[in-house]
Amino acid sequence: MNPDRLVRRFMRYVQCDSESGHEQAFCRLLEEEGARLGVNFWRDPVGERAGSDGWNLGASIPGTGSPVLFSCHLDTVAPGRGIQPVVADGVIRSGGETVLGADDKSGVAAVMEALESILESGKPHRPVELLFSVCEEVGLKGAKYADYSRFASKEALVLDNDAPGLINHRAPANVHLHIQVQGRAAHAAVSHGEGIHALKASAAAIAQIPCGAPDGDTVMNVANFLAPGPTNVVPAQASFDMEIRSFVEEKLQGYIQQTRQALDAACGQYGASYTLEVERHSDVLDVPLDSPVLQQIQAIYRQMGVETRVESTFGGCDATWLCANGIRALNTGTGMANVHGTGEHIAIKDLETTTRMVEALMAITQG
Description:
By secondary structure, this protein is of the alpha+beta class. Helices cover 33% and strands 27% of the residues.
């Protein structure tokens, strides 16, 4: 690893705009960089389905031993245009008007620097595969629609977390619910008795739906409650969205059914009707603790003197879609901090630590 080159690489990446849906420029930058290194990226044309002007990037670099896939996402949240990174006291920060984009360009930089370092050294390495996805921040869409038939790896490392040494090996299934409640409009003053109040029916249902953590395996939330219209008209329509995440499929389905029951009761009370659409966002991620790639990463970190923490998380990342497609994927940290805000930053030493770990994992040719 070349520390100065790593920092220059990261700075170059974050100054290339790639807000979700607008990743094309960053895709082209990486393709040009790959060509210089002799890495032939192939395009996975998921842009139209994912809502991006870019595409997923994939690559396979031959080697010896069992292959491993490294996955990062190309997009940043807003405000992510015109990023001006600032370096001070060993930390790279946003200039204050935008995010920094360490989420997830620190991961991309670590993988690309590790790969360049190992290729220029001429040392043996395992087969290395890359998946850089679009539109992760708006629903893991690039990973959802990726062409997994092109990968040989059965294990993967996603670099999209905060602290180095933190490894997430479990994450819940995630479903989104979209509810529309139909009532009947009427003049709220003159003929209110003829109306069917969709807003009141929706509110009564929501009051019976748990939010937060109804049990140790599940979290739920309600958002986007809408019933637009003038105050002198009984609302004929209302809508709201929900999210349910659970490690246990039976519990997940049980809370969906509980939501239906709450809507049945509330709409029955007010004479309204409803439709409920369930969208599967991701499946359960569960990588065993004896997984070879997990043990390899822990061993590398121990040799580096970095403490590891292997944990479950309720957060989502591309690893869930890799796992759903037969690739055991872990998510580890890069040092990114205060992500999704204008105070986002990363310590250079953490970025270096991550890169050294990635390079060491690439260099394992046995086991």
